[in-house]
Amino acid sequence: MTSPHIRQPASVQRVMMTVLAALLPGIAAYVWQVGAGILVNIAIASVTALASEALVLRLRKRALWITLSDGSALVTAWLVALILPSIAPWWLTVIGVLVAIVGAKHLYGGIGQNPFNPAMAAYCAVIIAYPALMSQWPHIDGLDFATQLHLILGGSREIDGITGATALDAMRTGLRNQVDIHTILSSGTFGFAGGRGWEWIAAGYLVGGFFLLARRVITWHLPIGFIVGMGFTAGVAWLVAPDSFPSPLFHLASGGAMLAAFFIVTDPVTGASSPLGKFIFAAGVGVIAWIIRTFGMYPDGIAFAVLLMNICVPLINHATQPALVGQRKEARP
Amino acid sequence: MISRLFSFRGGIKPDSHKTESSEASIRNVPLPSRLVVLLTQGSQGAARTIVTVGDKVLKGQCIGEAEGVAGTAIHAPTSGTVTEIGPYPMAHPSGLASPAIVIEPDGEERWITHEPLDPATASREDLILRIQASGIVGMGGATFPSHLKADSEIETLIINGAECEPWITCDDRLMRERAAHIVTGSAILAHLTGARQVLVGIEDNKPEAIAAMRTAIQDMEAVARKCLDADKMNVIAVPTLYPTGGEKQLVRVLTGIDVPPDKRITDSGIQCFNVATAHTVCRALLHGESMVSRIVTVTGSVERPGNYETPLGMPVADLLAFCGVKPGTSRVLMGGPMMGFSLPSLDAPIAKGCNCLIAASNELFSPPPPEQPCIRCGNCANSCPVGLQPFELYWASRAKNLDRAEHYHLFTCMECGCCAYVCPAHIPLVDYFRFAKSEIRARNEERKTAEQARTRFEFRSLRLEREKTEKAARLAAKAAETRAKAASEADSALIAAAVEQAKMQSSVQDKAAPSRDQQT
After folding, report:
1. What's the gap in Å between the CA of A255 and the closest CA on chain B?
2. B47 and B99 within one domain
3. What SS3 state is found at B51?
4. What is the pTM of this model?
5. Between residues 203 and 232 of chain B, which touch chain A (CB distance below 8 Å)?
């Protein structure tokens, strides 16, 4: 046996469990604001993730337990459940998780090898395949648990009364139809910062994010990079034309922004690795997400932004190698 | 006086496990039945035997002369008889053997006559030669020859009492018990190197050592005061953070200077010695005692952990037996748990760089959990004291992409082990780096050999070519000569022929004349 002969009591499992724990405040806010249906989705996603990972590991003739128990599949599952509409039918969640675990993760070689964020790959796949289902978000206080469960289990979706546009959708549609931004914001869809109710969920993710920072599972470069990237771009547009562009606060409190800032761009496997690289990567996601939100046609642009920046990771890493101690910046190769 | 400290990059805080061995005073060990003094003690040079089997030797008598500039002498650790000169395993992960002189102690411990030197009056050359002749090498573990380090001109001398590795306490005890000698030795080294200030860095988990060293500076001996003013030497308590005891890390903490990876600390006007080395310098110069023993921490799964004044050459097995190894010990580590190694053989003798033996059981040092895939969490990069990206080095080493590993500065890695310590995937990163380094060294060696072969071949071709041309030239010259000779021969033949002809003609005329006469 060789040095070092001692090790910190750290493990991949512990890292993943910390991430799951950090998701709890956001999930709690979700249940409080939208209903307990999300818990069903999380359960479906978790079971699918573990089962499919076990199957793939079996096919790949890999040790089962050490990978299954590392918790990474559960993190992916929970994220997929959280980014899909909470009344999505069960099979949509299953497809999303299969794309994430089998397609984005294991086809590339399993944990640590995948170039694309599995949850984001799943989101992109299902939004392209099922755009209608992906735009059906529940009214913030319209659906009781029984109705949610009914919809999740594949019940009939006579839904005009029970779903509504998300804040991002309402904003984009309103602006495209030349509606005044203040009129748009005065509708019931909007709260004090983002979508009414959804802003509390964003706040829950923020709390979990601070927990991750405190536990040093993530460094500040990624969330701050994302917030600066999205906030700065949105801020410039908003300052130039406040009637045509919503404020940075609206962008950061809406859609998946807070989840992305602390739980998505922070995926270490698919992100950049040097401190400067992390910042550039996350800022790039923020900027591209804002562009897609503003000029694109999808409900949110974060997933596409993440995948685009995933492609840039090798370049970013190459260009942002940190200098060694005592080595001047310009002296590096 | 330095008013503020600096922090170095990265670092870790493992459990210190110091008290197991630090609470008892330094003890002597009984002489073993034989002492095996290796001729290779330092990292740079070796010694040449000057005794033969059967010789009687005194304690401190030189038995191996320093070989070359970097060599350091070795001495009999006790009085006795040389019984054997032959190869013995070194305390090294490879278990390779080194020639050694085996001495059977006579139990009398008779010293050779001491010849002290006065550092204030002796010449610098004499002092440095004495350090070499006393066999002093860096005792923190690197075993670099001290006379080479003392022969430098610097501004700041750092005395390293950080002892940042867990479990090791030999420097701690030495500072607590023999601070005066350390201070004197440091003053002498300052005198030799022309240092204007001496900074003694000690981790703040050793308050007794810090206090003892401060007192010793206040009560500095007269001989030391002749070398250095007492107010030029300061003890500085540095935060406990592994690897503060690393040379460049300690320089950073004490002076704020980041020494570049491709530079030595002397390039920044700094030199650094371990406290035990300073102590040994004092003993060698002021008391004429060559280096014949050192303090070794024996700890871990033993009955009597502590620090032992151990004669050099004492087999590890004998020292451990004296300390009482507990059942359940699965291996013995030499050095600390962060950078030490498992001893392949307990027959290896204690050498000058051996600071610690840890009897390791699975309870104290649990076997590493299974390796998992890297998730690029970056904890290794955050912990690296030299600013490497260990996970990049890992991917490159794993893929045997050696150029990439070098591009990511593989050889800046000092194998401190911080990255592997923090890795949540339990990847033995340092192993990967050692592997890649050896592969690169082998490749470079191969390239060098190939290069040499190529040069030789080209030279040979050149030589053959030259020889051919020369031969051709020679042949041509010879041919020309032959031709010339032939030509000249031909000329003379012609002349001869002409003469002959002329003669013939004249004889014909002679013959004709009478006929003409006859006609007339």
Report:
1. 27
2. yes
3. coil
4. 0.86
5. none
